[in-house]
């Protein structure tokens, strides 16, 4: 796993007791991702911790600008980071909760 991150991978792992209940799945697992994107890596480094983040798919309501996104999401998020255009290809999701790994979705990352 260490050789694949940062990169286009999401790893499903058993959740520890440190994971807030509101973030847990019914299986008590958590998805961990360290994207190979300089803005994300720099932000995590500056904050000296982990980030809880989601990606936003563009809709007609969102438009193309950060101003439009702020209008739609201003009451739901702490802040928005405009990191410019990024690739939209999905990450590869790998379940590591069993005795053997299982690729749940093949994305950009090669296994």
Please provide a brief summary of the model.
This protein has 2 helices and 4 strands. By secondary structure, the chain is of the alpha+beta class.
Descriptive account of the structure:
With 111 residues, the protein is an alpha+beta fold. The chain has a domain at 1-37 and 90-111. It has two helices and four strands; from the N terminus they run ββααββ. It has helices at 38-47, 66-73; strands at residues 9-14, 29-33, 92-95, 102-105. Strands 2-1-3-4 form a four-stranded mixed β-sheet, with no helix packed on it. A hairpin with a 6-residue loop joins strand 3 (92-95) and strand 4 (102-105). The longest helix has 10 residues, at 38-47. The model has no long low-confidence stretch (mean pLDDT 84).
Explain the layout of strands and helices.
Elements: E1 9-14, E2 29-33, H1 38-47, H2 66-73, E3 92-95, E4 102-105
Parallel strand pairs: 1-3
Antiparallel strand pairs: 1-2, 3-4
Query: Order of strands across the biggest sheet?
Result: 2-1-3-4
* Structural class determined from secondary elements: alpha+beta
Fraction of residues in β-strands: 15-25%
**Estimated radius of gyration:** 16 Å
Mean pLDDT: 84
Based on Cα principal axes, name the global outline.
Answer: globular
Question: Number of helical runs?
Answer: 2
Q: What kind of assembly state do the chains in view correspond to?
A: single chain
Helix content: 10-25%
Distance between the termini: 10 Å
What characterizes the major β-sheet? 4 strands, mixed
Taken in chain order, the helices and strands follow as: EEHHEE
- According to DSSP, the number of beta strands is 4
Unreliable spans? none
